[in-house]
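Researcher: Sequence recovery benchmark, item below. Answer with residues only.
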């Protein structure tokens, strides 16, 4: 079975500034985000920094997403980090058992999971957003996440913003985070080839300032056939005029043989 998955830190749909899309940019950003979803057409869309309110005009995110997905599990983030811990998992296939778990080293950081029935194959999807500031906290969160996915039955797919720079694949942090998954038979979609985050958020020099921190990790029995990014935001006038780019989506084409 072929399954297309997209992980996307939307920056509250706007530019990651903690606000919904301003009224004067509502139409432009709505068209932008619709276009990204339509052109890539993922079967499962996993979102970080999600806001239920798309814009300051009162347009809802759900009204856009339900054009494409009959199943949507959304949650508002709470606590010290507020908006950018919000989550959403959207699927063309039925979603069940949606659960939110808090990381033991940070009550404001959590990972949510659900089971998606892909034509009779049960796949556990996990959505996460690691700590942005401390390497040791990210490593601990990765280990806690790893211990969780080892308990799930069948196949699993982890999506999210890992806040971990992959351009040095031999770093101590990368080894601590990824080797445990690799040794378990997992494959990693973004091995550092894709620079999909603008580190300065105000610098549009994409090549020189990008870091690969968003990823998709697939369990054994799932093959990653193809991986790409959507760079629409890099050339979109509305985004460039706003002065920030932030994340762009990572998309993977997967083959799921059996659970």
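Model:
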């Amino acid at each position: 079975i072929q399954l297309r998955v997209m992980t996307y830190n939307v920056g509250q749909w706007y530019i990651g500034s903690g606000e919904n899309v301003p009224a004067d940019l509502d139409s432009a950003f709505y068209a932008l985000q619709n276009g990204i979803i339509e052109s890539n057409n993922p079967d499962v869309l996993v979102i970080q920094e999600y806001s239920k309110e798309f814009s300051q005009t009162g347009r809802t995110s759900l009204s856009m997403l339900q054009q494409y997905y009959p199943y949507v599990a959304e949650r508002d983030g709470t606590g010290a980090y507020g908006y950018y811990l919000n989550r959403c998992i959207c699927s063309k296939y039925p979603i069940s058992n949606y659960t939110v778990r808090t990381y033991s080293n940070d009550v404001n950081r959590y990972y949510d999971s659900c089971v998606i029935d892909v034509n009779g194959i049960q796949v556990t999807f996990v959505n996460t957003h690691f700590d942005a500031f401390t390497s040791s906290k990210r490593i601990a969160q990765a280990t806690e996440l790893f211990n969780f996915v080892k308990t799930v039955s069948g196949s699993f797919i982890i999506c999210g913003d890992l806040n971990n720079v992959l351009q040095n694949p031999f770093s101590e942090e990368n080894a601590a985070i990824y080797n445990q998954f690799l040794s378990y038979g997992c494959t990693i979609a973004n091995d550092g080839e894709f620079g999909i985050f603008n580190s300065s958020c105000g610098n549009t020099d994409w090549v020189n300032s990008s870091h690969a921190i968003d990823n998709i990790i697939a369990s054994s029995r799932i093959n990653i056939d193809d991986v790409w990014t959507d760079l629409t935001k890099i050339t979109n006038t509305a985004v460039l005029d706003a002065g920030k780019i932030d994340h762009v989506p990572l998309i993977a084409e997967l083959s799921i043989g059996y659970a």
